[in-house]
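TICKET #2291
ISSUE: user wants both folds in one file
ATTACHMENT 1:
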Amino acid sequence: MIYFVQSIATQLVKIGTTKCLAQRLNGLRIEAGGDVDVLGVAKGGRPEETSLHEHFQHLHVKGEWFRPEAELLEYIKQNARPWHRGLGTFTVSIDEDTEAGLQAFLNSLEYRPQFSRLFRRAIQEFLARRGFYSLPDLPHRQHRSRCVPGA
Protein backbone atom coordinates (compact mmCIF):
# COMPACT_ATOMS: atom_id res chain seq x y z
CA MET A 1 0.00 0.00 0.00
CA ILE A 2 1.09 3.56 -0.66
CA TYR A 3 0.71 5.96 2.23
CA PHE A 4 0.76 9.73 2.49
CA VAL A 5 1.68 11.12 5.93
CA GLN A 6 2.29 14.70 6.99
CA SER A 7 4.71 15.75 9.68
CA ILE A 8 3.05 17.96 12.27
CA ALA A 9 6.40 19.67 12.99
CA THR A 10 7.54 20.44 9.43
CA GLN A 11 4.29 20.04 7.47
CA LEU A 12 6.25 18.00 4.88
CA VAL A 13 4.42 15.07 3.23
CA LYS A 14 6.00 11.64 2.92
CA ILE A 15 5.03 9.31 0.08
CA GLY A 16 5.97 5.76 1.02
CA THR A 17 4.96 2.12 0.85
CA THR A 18 4.36 -0.48 3.51
CA LYS A 19 2.47 -3.69 4.07
CA CYS A 20 1.39 -2.57 7.52
CA LEU A 21 0.97 1.13 8.20
CA ALA A 22 0.00 0.56 11.83
CA GLN A 23 3.43 -0.95 12.49
CA ARG A 24 5.22 1.64 10.33
CA LEU A 25 3.83 4.66 12.22
CA ASN A 26 6.41 4.61 15.06
CA GLY A 27 9.27 4.77 12.57
CA LEU A 28 7.52 7.57 10.71
CA ARG A 29 7.18 9.57 13.93
CA ILE A 30 10.91 9.24 14.52
CA GLU A 31 11.68 10.28 10.93
CA ALA A 32 9.31 13.24 11.18
CA GLY A 33 10.62 14.41 14.54
CA GLY A 34 7.19 14.10 16.15
CA ASP A 35 3.61 13.19 15.40
CA VAL A 36 2.31 12.63 11.89
CA ASP A 37 -1.13 12.77 10.31
CA VAL A 38 -2.08 10.02 7.89
CA LEU A 39 -3.51 11.93 4.94
CA GLY A 40 -4.56 8.78 3.10
CA VAL A 41 -3.59 5.46 1.56
CA ALA A 42 -3.84 4.02 -1.94
CA LYS A 43 -3.33 0.66 -3.61
CA GLY A 44 0.10 0.17 -5.03
CA GLY A 45 3.65 -0.88 -4.35
CA ARG A 46 7.17 0.30 -5.12
CA PRO A 47 6.61 0.91 -8.87
CA GLU A 48 3.65 3.23 -8.16
CA GLU A 49 5.55 4.91 -5.34
CA THR A 50 8.52 5.56 -7.65
CA SER A 51 6.18 6.99 -10.27
CA LEU A 52 4.69 9.39 -7.68
CA HIS A 53 8.18 10.43 -6.52
CA GLU A 54 9.08 11.24 -10.14
CA HIS A 55 5.78 13.05 -10.76
CA PHE A 56 6.23 15.28 -7.71
CA GLN A 57 10.03 15.67 -8.06
CA HIS A 58 9.64 19.47 -8.28
CA LEU A 59 8.27 19.39 -4.69
CA HIS A 60 11.02 17.07 -3.35
CA VAL A 61 12.82 18.15 -0.17
CA LYS A 62 14.75 15.08 1.03
CA GLY A 63 14.37 11.30 0.98
CA GLU A 64 10.67 10.60 0.42
CA TRP A 65 9.51 13.94 1.86
CA PHE A 66 7.81 16.59 -0.29
CA ARG A 67 6.52 20.15 0.16
CA PRO A 68 2.76 20.17 0.87
CA GLU A 69 1.74 22.31 -2.08
CA ALA A 70 -1.76 22.37 -3.55
CA GLU A 71 -0.92 20.02 -6.43
CA LEU A 72 0.21 17.21 -4.11
CA LEU A 73 -2.57 17.74 -1.57
CA GLU A 74 -5.18 17.71 -4.34
CA TYR A 75 -3.70 14.48 -5.75
CA ILE A 76 -4.00 12.85 -2.32
CA LYS A 77 -7.57 14.13 -1.90
CA GLN A 78 -8.58 12.73 -5.32
CA ASN A 79 -6.67 9.43 -5.30
CA ALA A 80 -6.23 8.24 -1.71
CA ARG A 81 -8.77 6.88 0.71
CA PRO A 82 -8.88 7.61 4.45
CA TRP A 83 -6.95 5.23 6.67
CA HIS A 84 -8.36 4.07 9.99
CA ARG A 85 -6.47 2.00 12.52
CA GLY A 86 -8.20 -1.34 13.17
CA LEU A 87 -11.40 -2.61 11.68
CA GLY A 88 -13.80 0.05 12.92
CA THR A 89 -17.43 -0.53 13.81
CA PHE A 90 -19.90 -2.48 11.76
CA THR A 91 -23.40 -3.87 12.24
CA VAL A 92 -24.51 -7.35 11.30
CA SER A 93 -28.14 -8.44 11.18
CA ILE A 94 -28.82 -12.17 11.49
CA ASP A 95 -31.86 -14.32 12.15
CA GLU A 96 -32.40 -16.45 15.28
CA ASP A 97 -31.33 -19.72 13.62
CA THR A 98 -28.08 -18.18 12.42
CA GLU A 99 -27.46 -16.69 15.85
CA ALA A 100 -28.13 -20.09 17.48
CA GLY A 101 -25.71 -21.72 15.04
CA LEU A 102 -23.07 -19.14 15.77
CA GLN A 103 -23.58 -19.63 19.49
CA ALA A 104 -23.15 -23.39 19.10
CA PHE A 105 -19.98 -22.83 17.10
CA LEU A 106 -18.58 -20.48 19.73
CA ASN A 107 -19.50 -22.93 22.48
CA SER A 108 -17.47 -25.61 20.70
CA LEU A 109 -14.36 -23.48 20.23
CA GLU A 110 -11.32 -24.47 22.15
CA TYR A 111 -8.63 -21.92 22.83
CA ARG A 112 -6.18 -21.76 19.95
CA PRO A 113 -3.11 -19.48 19.95
CA GLN A 114 -3.71 -18.46 16.35
CA PHE A 115 -6.86 -16.52 17.33
CA SER A 116 -5.78 -12.93 17.59
CA ARG A 117 -6.77 -10.76 20.51
CA LEU A 118 -8.82 -8.64 18.10
CA PHE A 119 -10.82 -11.65 16.91
CA ARG A 120 -11.35 -12.85 20.47
CA ARG A 121 -12.42 -9.34 21.56
CA ALA A 122 -14.88 -9.15 18.65
CA ILE A 123 -16.42 -12.47 19.69
CA GLN A 124 -16.63 -11.34 23.33
CA GLU A 125 -18.32 -8.07 22.36
CA PHE A 126 -20.73 -9.86 20.02
CA LEU A 127 -21.76 -12.24 22.80
CA ALA A 128 -21.99 -9.54 25.45
CA ARG A 129 -24.31 -7.41 23.30
CA ARG A 130 -26.62 -10.41 22.98
CA GLY A 131 -26.55 -11.33 26.65
CA PHE A 132 -24.47 -14.49 26.20
CA TYR A 133 -21.46 -15.51 28.24
CA SER A 134 -18.08 -14.27 27.17
CA LEU A 135 -14.99 -16.26 26.36
CA PRO A 136 -12.70 -16.63 29.34
CA ASP A 137 -9.56 -14.56 29.48
CA LEU A 138 -6.91 -17.08 28.54
CA PRO A 139 -3.20 -16.42 28.43
CA HIS A 140 -1.91 -15.53 24.99
CA ARG A 141 1.20 -17.10 23.54
CA GLN A 142 3.87 -14.55 22.67
CA HIS A 143 3.93 -14.09 18.90
CA ARG A 144 4.84 -11.46 16.36
CA SER A 145 2.05 -9.08 15.57
CA ARG A 146 0.51 -9.54 12.18
CA CYS A 147 -0.96 -6.87 10.02
CA VAL A 148 -4.37 -7.08 8.39
CA PRO A 149 -4.00 -6.23 4.68
CA GLY A 150 -5.07 -2.65 4.14
CA ALA A 151 -4.92 -1.85 7.87
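ATTACHMENT 2:
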Amino acid sequence: MGRRRPWVLGAQLGLTLSFLALALVGQPDEQMGLLMLVGVLINSFAATQDVAVDGMAIDVTPVNEQGRLNGFMVFGKAVGWGLTSAITGTMLVKFGLGVTAMAAAVVQAIVLLGFMMTRERRGERRLIRPTQTGSRDRANDGGSKHNRAGHGGTAPALIAPVLTHAAAHRSAHRSPRSPPSPAA
Protein backbone atom coordinates (compact mmCIF):
# COMPACT_ATOMS: atom_id res chain seq x y z
CA MET A 1 0.00 0.00 0.00
CA GLY A 2 1.27 3.45 -0.82
CA ARG A 3 1.99 6.29 1.57
CA ARG A 4 -1.28 8.19 1.06
CA ARG A 5 -3.82 5.43 0.50
CA PRO A 6 -3.97 4.30 4.16
CA TRP A 7 -4.86 7.88 5.13
CA VAL A 8 -7.56 8.07 2.45
CA LEU A 9 -9.01 4.70 3.48
CA GLY A 10 -8.95 5.59 7.18
CA ALA A 11 -10.56 8.97 6.59
CA GLN A 12 -13.19 7.44 4.31
CA LEU A 13 -14.01 4.81 6.93
CA GLY A 14 -14.22 7.59 9.52
CA LEU A 15 -16.60 9.54 7.28
CA THR A 16 -18.80 6.49 6.81
CA LEU A 17 -18.97 5.82 10.55
CA SER A 18 -19.51 9.51 11.32
CA PHE A 19 -22.48 9.70 8.98
CA LEU A 20 -23.89 6.58 10.65
CA ALA A 21 -23.46 8.35 13.99
CA LEU A 22 -25.29 11.37 12.56
CA ALA A 23 -28.31 9.11 12.04
CA LEU A 24 -28.42 8.68 15.84
CA VAL A 25 -29.25 12.35 16.29
CA GLY A 26 -33.03 12.09 16.63
CA GLN A 27 -33.84 15.64 17.72
CA PRO A 28 -31.09 18.01 16.55
CA ASP A 29 -32.51 20.97 18.46
CA GLU A 30 -32.46 18.96 21.72
CA GLN A 31 -29.16 17.11 21.06
CA MET A 32 -27.01 20.05 20.04
CA GLY A 33 -23.89 18.70 21.79
CA LEU A 34 -24.08 15.36 19.96
CA LEU A 35 -24.80 17.12 16.67
CA MET A 36 -21.76 19.37 17.13
CA LEU A 37 -19.52 16.43 18.06
CA VAL A 38 -20.57 14.47 14.97
CA GLY A 39 -20.10 17.60 12.84
CA VAL A 40 -16.55 18.01 14.14
CA LEU A 41 -15.83 14.34 13.39
CA ILE A 42 -17.20 14.59 9.85
CA ASN A 43 -15.18 17.72 9.12
CA SER A 44 -12.00 16.29 10.68
CA PHE A 45 -12.19 13.14 8.55
CA ALA A 46 -13.06 15.18 5.45
CA ALA A 47 -10.05 17.48 6.01
CA THR A 48 -7.74 14.50 6.54
CA GLN A 49 -9.01 12.89 3.36
CA ASP A 50 -8.63 16.18 1.48
CA VAL A 51 -4.94 16.47 2.36
CA ALA A 52 -4.25 12.79 1.59
CA VAL A 53 -6.05 12.90 -1.77
CA ASP A 54 -4.24 16.06 -2.81
CA GLY A 55 -0.91 14.48 -1.88
CA MET A 56 -1.80 11.30 -3.74
CA ALA A 57 -2.80 13.26 -6.83
CA ILE A 58 0.55 15.06 -6.83
CA ASP A 59 2.48 11.84 -6.19
CA VAL A 60 0.90 9.72 -8.93
CA THR A 61 0.43 12.38 -11.61
CA PRO A 62 3.33 13.45 -13.83
CA VAL A 63 4.25 17.11 -13.33
CA ASN A 64 3.22 18.05 -16.87
CA GLU A 65 -0.33 16.72 -16.23
CA GLN A 66 -0.91 18.18 -12.77
CA GLY A 67 -2.51 21.35 -14.15
CA ARG A 68 -5.07 19.35 -16.10
CA LEU A 69 -5.81 17.15 -13.09
CA ASN A 70 -6.19 20.26 -10.94
CA GLY A 71 -8.80 21.55 -13.41
CA PHE A 72 -10.73 18.28 -13.27
CA MET A 73 -10.59 18.25 -9.48
CA VAL A 74 -11.84 21.85 -9.19
CA PHE A 75 -14.65 21.13 -11.65
CA GLY A 76 -15.53 17.89 -9.84
CA LYS A 77 -15.56 19.69 -6.51
CA ALA A 78 -17.93 22.38 -7.78
CA VAL A 79 -20.30 19.88 -9.38
CA GLY A 80 -20.11 17.61 -6.33
CA TRP A 81 -20.95 20.39 -3.90
CA GLY A 82 -23.86 21.56 -6.06
CA LEU A 83 -25.37 18.10 -6.55
CA THR A 84 -24.79 17.07 -2.94
CA SER A 85 -26.41 20.26 -1.64
CA ALA A 86 -29.46 19.85 -3.88
CA ILE A 87 -29.94 16.16 -3.12
CA THR A 88 -29.31 16.27 0.62
CA GLY A 89 -31.34 19.46 1.03
CA THR A 90 -34.30 17.81 -0.66
CA MET A 91 -33.84 14.61 1.35
CA LEU A 92 -33.68 16.54 4.64
CA VAL A 93 -37.02 18.19 3.94
CA LYS A 94 -38.76 15.05 2.67
CA PHE A 95 -37.24 12.29 4.83
CA GLY A 96 -35.49 13.90 7.79
CA LEU A 97 -31.98 13.80 9.19
CA GLY A 98 -31.82 10.06 9.94
CA VAL A 99 -32.57 8.88 6.40
CA THR A 100 -30.36 11.56 4.86
CA ALA A 101 -27.45 10.59 7.14
CA MET A 102 -27.91 6.89 6.30
CA ALA A 103 -27.91 7.69 2.57
CA ALA A 104 -24.71 9.73 3.02
CA ALA A 105 -23.13 6.83 4.91
CA VAL A 106 -24.02 4.44 2.05
CA VAL A 107 -22.44 6.78 -0.50
CA GLN A 108 -19.31 7.08 1.64
CA ALA A 109 -19.15 3.28 1.96
CA ILE A 110 -19.37 2.90 -1.83
CA VAL A 111 -16.49 5.35 -2.26
CA LEU A 112 -14.55 3.40 0.40
CA LEU A 113 -15.06 0.16 -1.54
CA GLY A 114 -13.87 1.90 -4.70
CA PHE A 115 -10.68 2.99 -3.01
CA MET A 116 -10.16 -0.47 -1.58
CA MET A 117 -10.04 -1.82 -5.15
CA THR A 118 -7.53 0.74 -6.45
CA ARG A 119 -3.77 0.90 -6.27
CA GLU A 120 -1.72 3.98 -5.58
CA ARG A 121 1.21 2.58 -7.53
CA ARG A 122 1.86 -0.36 -9.81
CA GLY A 123 2.62 -3.61 -8.07
CA GLU A 124 0.62 -2.83 -4.95
CA ARG A 125 -1.94 -5.26 -3.70
CA ARG A 126 -5.57 -4.31 -3.62
CA LEU A 127 -7.53 -4.78 -0.43
CA ILE A 128 -10.43 -6.12 -2.51
CA ARG A 129 -9.88 -7.76 -5.87
CA PRO A 130 -12.65 -7.17 -8.42
CA THR A 131 -12.19 -10.62 -9.97
CA GLN A 132 -10.72 -13.82 -8.61
CA THR A 133 -8.49 -15.16 -11.37
CA GLY A 134 -6.32 -17.29 -9.14
CA SER A 135 -3.23 -15.21 -9.91
CA ARG A 136 -1.62 -12.87 -7.47
CA ASP A 137 -1.01 -9.21 -8.12
CA ARG A 138 2.69 -8.91 -8.87
CA ALA A 139 4.93 -5.95 -9.49
CA ASN A 140 5.34 -5.46 -13.20
CA ASP A 141 7.41 -2.33 -13.07
CA GLY A 142 10.84 -3.93 -12.92
CA GLY A 143 10.88 -3.92 -9.13
CA SER A 144 11.01 -0.15 -8.83
CA LYS A 145 8.64 1.07 -6.18
CA HIS A 146 8.45 4.53 -7.70
CA ASN A 147 8.13 3.85 -11.40
CA ARG A 148 5.95 6.57 -12.87
CA ALA A 149 5.80 5.22 -16.41
CA GLY A 150 2.27 4.42 -17.46
CA HIS A 151 0.62 6.05 -14.45
CA GLY A 152 -2.39 7.37 -16.26
CA GLY A 153 -4.32 4.49 -14.72
CA THR A 154 -6.65 3.61 -11.92
CA ALA A 155 -5.85 5.97 -9.06
CA PRO A 156 -5.85 9.26 -11.01
CA ALA A 157 -8.97 8.19 -12.89
CA LEU A 158 -10.84 7.55 -9.64
CA ILE A 159 -9.53 10.48 -7.64
CA ALA A 160 -11.09 13.22 -9.76
CA PRO A 161 -14.64 11.95 -10.33
CA VAL A 162 -15.20 9.96 -7.14
CA LEU A 163 -13.77 12.34 -4.57
CA THR A 164 -15.46 15.45 -5.83
CA HIS A 165 -15.13 17.20 -2.52
CA ALA A 166 -11.30 17.11 -2.58
CA ALA A 167 -9.91 20.63 -2.44
CA ALA A 168 -7.83 20.97 -5.57
CA HIS A 169 -6.68 24.49 -4.76
CA ARG A 170 -4.06 23.02 -2.42
CA SER A 171 -2.14 21.50 -5.32
CA ALA A 172 -2.11 24.82 -7.15
CA HIS A 173 -0.20 26.42 -4.27
CA ARG A 174 2.46 23.73 -3.96
CA SER A 175 5.73 23.75 -5.81
CA PRO A 176 6.24 20.91 -8.31
CA ARG A 177 8.03 17.96 -6.82
CA SER A 178 10.73 16.05 -8.56
CA PRO A 179 10.07 12.34 -8.92
CA PRO A 180 11.54 10.22 -6.13
CA SER A 181 14.75 8.40 -6.88
CA PRO A 182 14.39 4.68 -7.66
CA ALA A 183 14.94 2.29 -4.79
CA ALA A 184 18.35 0.66 -4.82
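RESOLUTION: both attachments delivered.
EXTRA DETAIL ON ATTACHMENT 2: Residues 146 and 182 are 6 Å apart (CA to CA).
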